[in-house]
Predict the 3D structure of the following.
Amino acid sequence: MSSSVERFDERARREADRVGETVVRRGELLRHPVYTRVLHWLVAILFVLSLLSGFGLYSPWLFRWLTPLFGGGPMTRFLHPWFGLAFDIFFFFQFLNWFVPMKWTDADRRWMRRIKEYTTNREKLEPADVGFFNGGQKLYFWAIVLSGALFLVTGLLLWFDDAVPRWLVAVSYVVHDIAALVMLGGFIIHIYEGTAAQPGTFRAMTDGTVSEEWAWTHHPAWYRDATGRDPREDYERASRRQIERERAVEAWEHEQDARERAEGTQKSER
Ligand code: HEM
């Protein structure tokens, strides 16, 4: 990446962080600064708008009910390429922003080999070499980069189809629709992983922070870099503390029960 692009990206991050703020409390880590979050949600909104308007165009027979959202059929046809273009532009900025942490490494290759263990939650902690993003997140990112590029090329050919040979228009339709299916599949998995599957993840894109517990569980190598502490040791210390707390509560409850029983016996004797 050229240094002028890096300088631009750095400036944009600083400007965004001046406008909004991220409050990081004790026991939390900064995950995504304001700039990243704003870009993420702009991309997400434009993706959904492109998807819904695209459904209406893809199969009016099935999705006619969606077109009134955009002001009718012709308006949907008019707006869809603009939504797509805006999606690509904002995602391009996110690409510059995330290009470095999304670089594929040996750790990601290892992560992909144990994807079954990940999906079945067999291990409490992710392997020690999982950094800021795991292999699955990187795969999703690169799938969007590829699909975004295909959307742009085929989208432009379909937008200006009068100037393009018929066979190229036909090929563009197929490629555009395949890219949309890939993105839709990834999007469904992404929402599940970012919300229900891993509690505590969603706030990374709203507040911008995550708990330390979340970080040592899902991204141990990042936790080590960010805090300088050992994720497994901290996890084990927290587990021990939790067990001690539960035991103390149990002992207190037993004591209360015994006291109430003793008081009950005294009353009945009087
Ligand atoms: C609308 C529902 C969405 C939700 C609830 C959601 C949630 C999230 C969350 C919580 C993260 C942070 C994950 C982390 O820090 O580990 C994230 C990251 C990300 N989001 Fe979204 N997102 C949504 C839509 C989208 C869309 C539409 C796209 C692009 C088409 C997208 C692309 C990404 C990418 C590339 C990342 C980084 C890699 C990853 O975490 O998978 N998101 N999202």
In short: The CA atoms of residues 13 and 47 lie 22 Å apart. The mean pLDDT is 94. The pocket of protoporphyrin IX containing FE is lined by residues 31, 40, 43-44, 47, 133, 137, 140-141, 144, 187, 190-191, 194-195, 201-202, 204-205 (CB under 6 Å).
